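Okay, any thoughts on this one?
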Amino acid sequence: MRTRTLAAMLALTVATHALSAPVTRTVMVDKPRYEGTRTIVRDHEAGTLTRDAEVTRKSDGATAERHYERARTDTGFTASGDSTTFAGQTRSFDVTHTRTDTGGTTNGRYTGRGGETYTLAGQRTKTETGHIANQHITNGAGETVYNRDARVSRANGQVTRSVDVTRARGFHPPRALRAGARRRH
């Protein structure tokens, strides 16, 4: 009996240490047109996630890179990233999400491949029967290019959803700024 208890305690100690240590995973990518590596580092204890990728086009040696990092904070999380295409065009974003007693707020900015800049402001508020959410994106000139209002309510086993989207002609929000784009880790 005593041996089993010691073995169980040892296994628990080793498992706890393994879960608290950062985990790094590197994947080699070899496709017909490009090759490279993708590295993911996740530290559950610190609440961080980092993803880096670099690929080289086989035909001419041009490289493309992508970097993403996310960190848990006391009140939510921060996320940022940047990428460079084979042609040398860059884009970047950074977002901060803050939990509140009644929901949360999100603020961020995005710079596109053409140098255009966008600012994001969003909030989600819990109601007695669901939630209300708003996402608002403005361009560098301060003009609203995207606005999304959503209202969800539940009553008698039914869910009612109302979404109203207004956007400038031809504007599609970058994936990094879309509603619901954030992922939990």
Remarks:
- Residues 105 and 123 are 4 Å apart (CA to CA).
- The chain is about 10% helix and 60% strand.
